[in-house]
Structure formats: structure tokens, C-alpha cells
Amino acid sequence: MRVLGLDPGIESFGFGVLEEEGGGIRVLDCGALRTSSHLPVWERLLQLYRELKELFLRFKPEEMAIEHFVGRGVRSALEVGEARGVALLVAAELGVPVFEYHPSKVKEIVTGYGRGSKSQVQRMIQLQLGLGSAPRPDDAADALATAFCHLWERKRKV
Amino acid sequence: MRVLGLDPGIESFGFGVLEEEGGGIRVLDCGALRTSSHLPVWERLLQLYRELKELFLRFKPEEMAIEHFVGRGVRSALEVGEARGVALLVAAELGVPVFEYHPSKVKEIVTGYGRGSKSQVQRMIQLQLGLGSAPRPDDAADALATAFCHLWERKRKV
User: Fold this and answer.
1) Domain map of chain B by residue range?
2) Is B46 on the interface with A (CB under 8 A)?
3) Closest residue by Cα to residue A53 from B52, B89, B94
4) Interface contact B114, partner A, CB < 8 A
5) Minimal Cα distance from A71: which residue of B?
6) Model pLDDT for residues B3-12, shown as the tens digit of each residue
7) Which pLDDT score, from 0 to 100, does residue B51 have?
8) Is B43 in the active site?
9) Which chain A residue shows the shortest CA-CA distance from B85?
10) Does the interface predicted TM-score (ipTM) exceed 0.95?
């Protein structure tokens, strides 16, 4: 089972690809897509659309996991919404099922409780996935945490 | 000069196509794209993406006009952002230049002052465009008002 986790943003769009096989989970790739603040927003969205499509086609995830947006102000909701809309569109175009998780659920699964700090999530995701160092940047770690949460929830439900 | 005005939303996505020729402005089409609340958001965004692309290809607008989002809460900003992101993406994909206007600017141009009510904007856009009745639904009237504002501003700047 291959899962793509996403942490949408217009400046930095985190992604993480996890594969579960024979009970083990490994990281296939993670990172952040970046767009220049000197470009108009529609050019940035087009760039994200193309790069996300490339990611989907390269890794062929069977499922996609994404966090519910939880309020950090109207401006931020609008910007995240625009980037998120493009990501959801790519998944729908390519027929990849989407699963959404509340951020507190992701934290609970990764750290054992719902209110871990950002750095705790990063340390725990490093340990859970047996990585040599914490995934960088933050958005990549968040995307991996969301993908990890989804794999965990899937297993629980089987 | 042909302009497509948009008023993004996930339930109802307003559009209006205006053409200016020889000093006169006429409405080529207006209406609202609707998606079912029974579908997951990614399916609704895919439907909007396809229908918007069809609109662009049918009317071949030279420019697109859209309002700046002005705060009505985080939930609404996120939803409008998702639909807006898809519309901006279509414009960028097809190379149609995008122009954004603050809602108060649109009201000022259409009604003569920046704080007109929704129904005043509708009545005035009906008068300005010489329509037999006010455009329906509201989102179509708002989209026409934004396109009208853009044509007006273009003329002023020439």
C-alpha cells in the first residue's frame, strides 16, 4: 500500500510518500514544493498543479492523505484553500481516493496524544519511520505524519 | 474585448461574460455552475474544473476578472479558496490574464459608491447592461458586476 501525504501551502507545499509492505513502513520520498512569492498566485498554482501531477505519476500512490484545515485566520485559510483545491483536483483527476484527518488525530497517532508540539511530531515521526534525522522542512514532516496516520488507521480498520 | 467575470463558490459558482465593442457592452452569457453537496469536495472541484474549462473554451475570454475575497470566516475562506484556486488554475493553464478587484471597488463602479447592498448592485448592473430583469442567481449578477468593473477600469486607464 502506497500513500501520498500532503501538507498544502502556497509558499511551501509538503509531501511525503510512504510504502507499507510486510508490516514495515518505509519512506520513498519527502520534501516540499516551493513557489516564488514574486509570481502572481495563479502562476504559482499552475506550477503546483504540474509538480503535484508529476509526483502522482512518479510514485503512483494508491491513496492520498491530507489534514483538515484548522483555523489560522481568514487570509491563511484562503491561501491554503487555493493550494488545497489544486491538490484535491489532481487526486480526483487521477482517481486517487482522498482521506482527511483532523490535525489532533494525526498528532495522537504519531505522538500518542492529541496536542504534541510541531517538534515532537517531527521527532516521533523520525523514530516511527526509523529515519537518521528528522524530516526537513517542517511541511515534509507534517505530510509524512499525515500519511503515517492514514496507514495506521487503515490497519486498525481491517 | 471579451471579459469573463467569476464569483467563486463550491455550492454555486457565478460567471458572466461581457463583450465591449464600439463603446457598447453586451452580456453574452451568465449563470452559476452548481455542484451537489452529496459529492465529496474533490469530486465537486473536478466538476467545476471541467465546466470552467468548457466556459473558457466556448467564450474565449481575453481577460478574466475576479473579486478579492473579503473575510466571512475561516470555513468560508477555505471553501471559497478551494473553488477559487481551481478557477485561477484554469486561467493560468489557458494563458488568460487575471485581474482582481476589491468588492468595494466593484460596488463603487457599478452603483457609484462603495457600500451598495447586494440588491442595489443587482439593480444597477441590470440598468448598466440594459437587461430586462436583474441577472439571476445572485452569483451571476456578482460575476457580471466584476466583469463590468474590469471593462470600466480598462477604459479609464487607456
Assistant:
1) 2-157
2) yes
3) B89
4) no
5) B74
6) 999 999 999 9
7) 98
8) no
9) A82
10) no
DSSP string, chain B: -EEEEEE--SSEEEEEEEEEETTEEEEEEEEEEE--TTS-HHHHHHHHHHHHHHHHHHH--SEEEEEPP--S-HHHHHHHHHHHHHHHHHHHHHT--EEEE-HHHHHHHHHSSTT--HHHHHHHHHHHTT-SS--SSHHHHHHHHHHHHHHHHHHHH-
> How far A11 CA sits from the closest chain B CA (Å)?
14
CATH number of A2-157: 3.20.20.60, 3.30.420.10, 3.20.20.70, 1.20.140.10? 3.30.420.10
Q: Give pLDDT tens digits for A19-57.
A: 999 888 999 999 999 999 999 999 999 999 999 999 999
pLDDT in tens, B52-87: 999 999 999 999 999 999 877 999 999 999 999 999
Tell me how long chain B is: 158
Residue A140, C-alpha cell as written in the block: 515534509
* Segments in chain B below pLDDT 70: 114, 158
pLDDT of residue A40: 97
